[in-house]
């Protein structure tokens, strides 16, 4: 036996955590997962996630890769119950998948999707899980604007200015609002996302819905490539990472 690489699939409620990535003086999902897996496998385990969710953002489908040494594959694949026993209720390990030695949870992902939830009536059971918005929105206009995203690739206007990335180009494949119960859900898919991109897009689309800007304004914002032209980022509580795709995973 020797070192072997695996993916672990997770779901988590991000309300209590300062995002995915380990950082000083804050509790994160990655920190708790690494600690649980290190105890279970009796060796230091360091995961690398498919992306970085911000504080308060949730995930129903999240992958990370990790390496483990001198442990039989059968034991690794059957580790879910043991790892879950050491994780808080807000974090759930779903499955472990053997992958090739160079597999990378972040760089190998070919598609991602997020959902953003909005509700319009006060509901204690949606606290930290959906955004309470009391404004009336023109959903048809919001969908018209959302469809325009598919015509662009440079989304600098929706990216945090201090984001360090080699390109601000993304290929958006879906962007649509749908009614759900007493609220709305916005679904957006792309090959990749910039930091804070979905929350900034959502904030700008809400401006469309409130008739503060129109479709021509929305186009001009995107073409400006200027973050200060776009709307404010909406609260993290309504955002969920819901799908990650890899060419070698079913």
Automatic annotation (TrEMBL):
Q: Where is the active site?
A: 54 (nucleophile)
- Please tell me whether the keyword Nucleus is annotated for this protein: no
Answer yes or no on keyword Isomerase: yes
Could you tell me what reaction this enzyme catalyses?
Answer: uridine(38/39/40) in tRNA = pseudouridine(38/39/40) in tRNA
**What SUPFAM superfamilies is this protein classified in?**
Pseudouridine synthase
Record keywords, A-Z = Isomerase, tRNA processing
* E.C. no: 5.4.99.12
Q: Which Gene3D superfamilies match?
A: Pseudouridine synthase I, catalytic domain, C-terminal subdomain (3.30.70.660), Pseudouridine synthase I, catalytic domain, N-terminal subdomain (3.30.70.580)
Q: Which residues bind substrate?
A: 114
Q: Which residues form the Pseudouridine synthase I TruA alpha/beta domain?
A: 147-247
Group of enzyme by EC:
isomerase
Output the superkingdom of the source species. Bacteria
GO molecular function terms attached to this record: RNA binding; tRNA pseudouridine(38-40) synthase activity
Q: Name one GO biological process term.
A: tRNA pseudouridine synthesis
Sequence intervals crossing the membrane: none
Instruction: Give a Pfam family name.
Output: PseudoU_synth_1
On subunit structure and binding partners, the annotation says: Homodimer.
Please describe what this protein does. Formation of pseudouridine at positions 38, 39 and 40 in the anticodon stem and loop of transfer RNAs.
Q: Which family is it part of?
A: Belongs to the tRNA pseudouridine synthase TruA family.
- Full protein name: tRNA pseudouridine synthase A
